[in-house]
Structures are given as C-alpha cells and as structure tokens.
C-alpha cells in the first residue's frame, strides 16, 4: 500500500460518487486523515481518520487493502484503539466478512439524500420558549454529550471544531437541553449529530434544533447529511420530516469485544 499525497486529493474527490462525510473531510483537509492506495493508479482506496474510522472504496479485489485492514485491526486490538469500518459496497462487505469475520461485528445503517423542496414544503415548527445559541467553548464546557473529548476524537481538537465546524444548542434556565453539531464537515457537506436531554424529549426540540442546523447549511452552501442505524426508527422518521429521503443501506464493521490476537 502507498500513502496518497494531498496533491492528489482533488482528483480522487472527483472520482468518488458517494462516501461518508468524513471521507470528504479528509480530502478537503478539514480534518487530519490518511488515504492509502493499492498502487499508483488508485484502483482501490482506504481512508483513515485519526479516530480509527475507515472507509474502503474502489476495486474490491485488492488483496493489499484487505491485508492493510487486517494489520490495522490487529493494531487496534493490541493498543485498545477504535476500529470502525464503513462499506458502501456489497462486494467489499462480503470480502471483509470473509476475511475478518472472527474479529468484527457489523451493523447496518441508512444514508439519506437531502431534498430541499421537501424541506421547504415541510410543516413548519412553532417557535420555542428556549434560547437558541451557536455553540462556542462555553457551551462545549457545559454540553450534554458533545464535550471537549468528543471534538478531540472527531476533529482533532476543540479549537479545530470551533474554527472549521459549527453547531447549535437550546438552553433552558442556563442548562443545555438539545444540541445539533457537525460531527464531520467538508467544503460541501455537513453531517448532523444530535442529542436531547431525556427529560425534554417529546417536545419537538430535536426537530427544531436540526432546522437551525440545516438553515445554516443552506446559508453557507453546504449540503446537510443525515445517517442513522436501520433500527433507529425515531431518527428515521425525524429525518423524513426534515427532507431526508431515499434511504440507502450500508454496512459498518466494528471490532468485536471477544477477539483474539491472531488476526
């Protein structure tokens, strides 16, 4: 495997029709990451974030990519690091299962398309009696879940998120009760991550805060992205109400807790 240099990222980006947002984040150099290729033709590609999130793309016949994945998985086991592998290809998924079957579990998720017409024609939500604030360091320090550790994992640092990412929160009596942030962002896309205080669920807060996030995306020529586990019916239906349509299933592989060091 060879490491692809950043000067080749724009050309690779043009060849990829569909990928997780973090792939575009790497290619746009918004977050730090590594791109591996099986050879100089870039026939098969492996994307890696610093957090241990991976994506395979291209010709699934590449033994070099599978061998590299096996080595990275072994490293994650030895060093107790994260290993999460995204596959949008049935061929890749079958090969990963065949080669790494004893060492990974899998789950299926949906990736949605954003339909701006459906969003504009949605049933509008009433205003809420809660303060909506753009997320800064103070809000991160008092976050429900998206704390400094979260941004260090996905963005490299909180400062990088504050410089390159964005998010909004709702407050009630100085307490953060709902948040929507960009878990990943590129020059074109922004993937939404949301959390709502369990004591305030059922009030439409998640939908309201996501609308703020989407509106900011549209103002800045960004396409909002929505993914969820296939059994997360609440997220599925919320996304549908907000213009996210045409769910496409993909597979995520993650390190089994019962693995042995024989990969």
Automatic annotation (TrEMBL):
Gene3D superfamilies with a match to the protein in the record: 3.40.630.30
InterPro entries: Acyl_CoA_acyltransferase, GNAT_acetyltra_YdfB-like, GNAT_dom
Superkingdom of this protein's organism: Bacteria
Domain N-acetyltransferase per the UniProt entry, residue ranges: 130-263
PANTHER family, sorted: FR47-LIKE DOMAIN-CONTAINING PROTEIN-RELATED, PTHR31143
Protein name: GNAT family N-acetyltransferase
Organism: Lysinibacillus agricola
The organism's taxonomic lineage, starting at the top: Bacteria, Bacillati, Bacillota, Bacilli, Bacillales
């Amino acid at each position: 495997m060879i490491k692809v240099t950043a000067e080749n990222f724009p050309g690779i980006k043009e060849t990829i029709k569909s990928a997780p947002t973090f792939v575009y984040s790497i290619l746009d150099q918004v977050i730090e990451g590594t791109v591996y290729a099986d050879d100089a033709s870039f026939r098969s590609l492996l994307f890696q974030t610093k957090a241990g999130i991976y994506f395979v793309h291209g010709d699934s016949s590449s033994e070099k990519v599978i061998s590299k994945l096996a080595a990275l998985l072994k490293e994650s086991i030895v060093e107790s690091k994260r290993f999460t592998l995204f596959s949008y290809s049935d061929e890749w998924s079958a090969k990963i299962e065949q080669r790494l079957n004893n060492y990974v579990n899998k789950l299926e998720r949906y990736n949605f398309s954003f339909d701006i017409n459906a969003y504009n024609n949605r049933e509008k939500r009433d205003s809420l009696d809660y303060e909506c604030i753009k997320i800064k360091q103070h809000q991160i320090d008092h976050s429900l879940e998206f704390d400094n550790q979260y941004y260090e994992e996905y963005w490299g640092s909180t400062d990088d998120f504050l410089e390159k990412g964005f998010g909004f929160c709702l407050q009630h009596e100085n307490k953060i009760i709902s948040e929507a942030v960009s878990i990943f962002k590129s020059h074109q896309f922004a993937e939404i991550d949301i959390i709502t205080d369990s004591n305030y669920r059922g009030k439409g807060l998640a939908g309201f805060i996501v609308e703020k996030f989407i509106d900011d995306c549209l103002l800045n020529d960004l396409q909002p992205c929505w993914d969820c586990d296939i059994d997360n019916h609440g997220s599925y239906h919320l996304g549908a109400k907000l213009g996210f349509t045409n769910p496409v299933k993909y597979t995520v592989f993650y390190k089994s807790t019962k693995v042995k060091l024989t990969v």
